[in-house]
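Q: I'm writing up a methods section and want to include an example of the input and output format. Could you take the sequence below and give the corresponding predicted C-alpha cells, formatted cleanly so I can copy it straight into the document?
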Amino acid sequence: MHDVALRLAERVRQLRQKCSLTQASLAGRAGVTVETVARLERVIRGRDSANFNPSLDTLLRLSAALGVDVCDLLASKAPTRQRDDRLTVLLRRASPATTQRILRVAEVLLSDDDGENEPRRTRAGRH
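A: Here is the clean output for your methods example:
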C-alpha cells in the first residue's frame, strides 16, 4: 500500500510542477485544502501523513485540476501525454458565458489565420 501512496505523491508533485502550480494553487483549482495537497506530497519525504489514503473524491478533484485521468495519478509510468492542455483546464474553470466569449474570439482568430496565406485585395477588389 505504501508503494501506491508514494507513486501517487510523486505523480501529483510531478504534474503540479509541470503545470507550474504551487501546492496552494493546485488546492484552489481542485477545491481541496492546501493541507490536503501538502500531506499527500509529504509521503515522498518518507513521512506518513493523515492523507496517506485520500478519498476517491479527492483523487477525482486533483486529476481534473491537473488535467489527467485518475488512473494517470496511480500509473507506475508517466502517461505519454496529458489528457487536457492548459487552455482546456482554464476553460473548465470558466463560466458558460465566459466560455462562449472565448470561443467566439478563438473563431475570429482562427478565421484570420485561414486568410493569412491568401492574397490580400485592395479596396477596388484587385490583388
